[in-house]
Amino acid sequence: MSKGRLEAFSDGVVAILITILVLELRIPRGADWAALRPLLPVFLTYVLSFAFLGIYWNNHHHMLHLADRINGGILWANLHLLFWLSLVPFTTGWMGENYWAALPAAVYGVVLLMAAIAYTILQRAIIAGQGPDSRLAAAIGSDTKGKLSIALYATAISLAFVNQWFSDALYIVVALMWLIPDRRIESRVTE
Amino acid sequence: MSKGRLEAFSDGVVAILITILVLELRIPRGADWAALRPLLPVFLTYVLSFAFLGIYWNNHHHMLHLADRINGGILWANLHLLFWLSLVPFTTGWMGENYWAALPAAVYGVVLLMAAIAYTILQRAIIAGQGPDSRLAAAIGSDTKGKLSIALYATAISLAFVNQWFSDALYIVVALMWLIPDRRIESRVTE
Amino acid sequence: MSKGRLEAFSDGVVAILITILVLELRIPRGADWAALRPLLPVFLTYVLSFAFLGIYWNNHHHMLHLADRINGGILWANLHLLFWLSLVPFTTGWMGENYWAALPAAVYGVVLLMAAIAYTILQRAIIAGQGPDSRLAAAIGSDTKGKLSIALYATAISLAFVNQWFSDALYIVVALMWLIPDRRIESRVTE
Amino acid sequence: MSKGRLEAFSDGVVAILITILVLELRIPRGADWAALRPLLPVFLTYVLSFAFLGIYWNNHHHMLHLADRINGGILWANLHLLFWLSLVPFTTGWMGENYWAALPAAVYGVVLLMAAIAYTILQRAIIAGQGPDSRLAAAIGSDTKGKLSIALYATAISLAFVNQWFSDALYIVVALMWLIPDRRIESRVTE
């Protein structure tokens, strides 16, 4: 099975998701600052979601670099990841339009959490296919960043019902934490 | 004619279809559970359609692996398949928004049935191009799963007018039946 | 300059156009036959536009096969073609929703006519880059089919103001005329 | 890291942006000239945005031709460029629907300005990765056209509040200035 076609399909889906996000930025009725102002929370959510999808594309790119073989399990684990990512435009729009409400902020986090779990499953499927000398397993090590993200998302989801700003802050922390591509893998690739 | 460009075009179309599906998940007006609840049937239909498009991409991927030559007939048979798949976002939205109505459930099945028939036609066009020693024909054998799917879709369409849940159950059965990539072809490829 | 990236970009644009066409099929309010019936003209226009975009993809595919070099002029001629094709979802939706009106049917034809002219310009740009021994020029010959299409589109545009059915019939005639990929080029490629 | 996948992802995003632009051309209610006329400003803005996205794709294509290595910084600089380009459909729709208003014309320019700055940052990231003998640096020289564009965009943004036509004229000037692919790079590639 060809890794190239898996990469191309995933890139296609992420490219479309990152682009149709903009359709959530509804064109305002008026043409003055007053018409633009209500768009600000949607725009900020848009920036955050754009960053998350960019991070996933980036890390997916690095991870597949270290994959040797693609099997049926990897194909499905990849589609499972794409499924959760495909919900990002919806949660972006809902959180953007209800910026001070708890539930949309929590649901936004649930989709990010499920995507992070799906990413971990995909990682394990690739490692399982590579056997004990897996290059990817060596590159990832204890995957502290991955586990920390999942813990932070779970915290953010619960905190949304206390105060939505806690959740937002945590989402931004996770995004910043990942904005640098995975050096562990990058250094392996260079070797 | 290049197989690569046919694969890339098909992947592009399926990637876009699987992604614009999410546009059918309309952002609810409110921000509480009550606002989210009416979305549940649309979401479940979304999951089902995502699975079907994922299955088609997966099997299309496997099938083209065993194709040697691409001719005009194969190009058109492929576009014919993409045509029926392109209607999935529409039927998903319509069934999702009218979850207890017979006609949308039946039309959902008609599009799946036509896509399954188009897939079979594409399969035959590839086999016809390969001649008597077709690797694809050998891999597919009697195509029991393909024929069974078509029979199940036809049954589901009629049952929609009795009770829509029968149809839904059958659609799920067909999806589960295919969720494993075609082992027959996979083993051939490995050989 | 790489032909591959030009092909990939064009395929991407056409794949997206052929897919977002379906967004013009608005989900009906009701769930019975009465709700579905008004969609019929939009659906038929959808089928026609799908066929036209499929034909363009197909012939574009064949034409670029015979292109040796890509230069700046070819890049822009290609973008010019994509521009006119990009208007097809708009004209499809407008004609579909106003099926018995003259102007939408004429505008539908104008976009097809401009796309056909843009295709001819692209063809000439490729031939000009190849010089006197152009393989594409030899394959195309006098380009009767191309010239005839342009004449038929022009006729259909004027006839739309007499009776829209004449235009529709002519659009279908042109589509059928092209549904077979360009044998002249195909035979050249095989040689 | 593979340049191919970066190019494919960027091409995908630009192809989708250039295509979903057409969704801003809302289908008019009526079917006569009166219904079509209000679309004219949206259509003209559409043509302008299509040209800008085409220019970016074209120049991006040329620039990456001269890139040797892709590193993490280049990936993020590229995503940053795509972010600003992703806002073009929104600003196109807003300016198109409010054609005689100052603010939408200024915001249209702000997005173009930020995209131009992002392009320059990407250029520098590639040059930095290539070291003192950078082929791209040699090809670009003093980058007069790039600097002039940024100055013209800044002027156009301020002039929008005087008279929107000044801004429009400047946007068209910049587009025309770039409609020819970068000869400096093209000649380097040929060498």
Feature tags:
homotetramer; about 190 residues; mainly alpha; 10 helices; globular
Task: Explain the overall architecture.
The structure is a homotetramer of 191-residue chains. The mean pLDDT of chain A is 89. In chain A, helix 1 (3-20) runs parallel beside helix 4 (72-86). The first copy, chain A, has helices spanning 3-20, 33-36, 40-65, 72-86, 88-97, 102-130, 135-140, 144-159, 164-178, 183-190. By secondary structure, chain A is mainly α. Chain A is globular and about 60 Å long. Chains in contact: A-B, A-D, B-C, C-D. The interface between A and B is medium-sized, with 31 and 34 residues.
Describe the structure in brief:
With 191 residues, chain A is an all-alpha fold. Chain A is built from ten helices and no strands.
What would you report as the Rg of chain A, rounded to the nearest angstrom? 18 Å
Given helix and strand content, the structural type of chain A is mainly alpha
Q: Can you give the helix content of chain A as a percent range?
A: over 70%
Sequence of secondary-structure elements of chain A: HHHHHHHHHH
Oligomer: homotetramer
| Beta-strand segment tally of chain A | 0
Low-confidence stretches of chain A at least 5 residues in length (pLDDT < 50)?
none
Shape of chain A: globular
How far is the N terminus from the C terminus of chain A?
A: 26 Å
- Figure out the total of helices of chain A: 10
List the helices and strands and how they pair.
Four copies of one chain form a homotetramer.
Chain A: H1 3-20, H2 33-36, H3 40-65, H4 72-86, H5 88-97, H6 102-130, H7 135-140, H8 144-159, H9 164-178, H10 183-190
Helix pairs in contact in A: 1-3, 1-4, 3-5, 3-9, 4-6, 5-6, 6-8, 6-9, 8-9
